[in-house]
Amino acid sequence: MNGLLRRAARIAWFPFFYGTRVVTSSFRVARDILTPGSSATPAFLEVPLRCRTDTEITAIANMVSLTPGTVTVATRTDPPTLWVHGLYTDDEQAFHDDIRQMEDYLLAITRPRDTHPRTTAGEEHR
After folding, report:
1. Of the candidates 66, 80, 65, which has an alpha carbon nearest to the alpha carbon of residue 116?
2. Where are the beta strands (DSSP E) in 1-126?
């Protein structure tokens, strides 16, 4: 029962986590549009995933594309990979970590907690 309550709490928290990310990204894009000059540093990046099912890969791809300033360009299922265009990619590792955090939240609600070990920022993505 305790695991069920934790999973319910993660599901309830998810809209707030993702909503905050969308609002923050929206303000960053709006500020860049409304101020002189541009702070954009666009790049295409390959992002290895821990998602395994088509549903998980599709969900993370859509989460990335729905976040202002990023778009999923392509996906691969074997091995699971996203190719993402980011508008603000000053630091590629931070960009990978942001997507990894979204994936952490997604996997926390689609799988039991112990089936997706989290990697730290210093570890290789693959």
Report:
1. 80
2. 43-48, 70-77, 80-86
The DSSP result for 71-82, as a single string, is EEEEEEETTEEE
Contacts of 52 by beta carbon, 8 Å cutoff, 6+ apart: 80
- Measured distance CA(60)–CA(73) in Å, rounded: 12
Write down the residue that tokens 């500020």 correspond to: 31
> Strand 43-48 vs strand 80-86: parallel, antiparallel, or unpaired?
antiparallel
CA distance linking residue 103 with residue 91, whole number of Å: 19
Q: What is the pLDDT of residues 21-71, one digit of tens each?
A: 999 999 999 999 999 988 899 999 999 999 999 999 999 999 999 999 999
The DSSP letter of residue 3 is: H
How far apart, in whole angstroms, are the C-alpha atoms of residue 100 and residue 46? Answer: 12
Quote the tokens at residue 76.
Answer: 């691969």
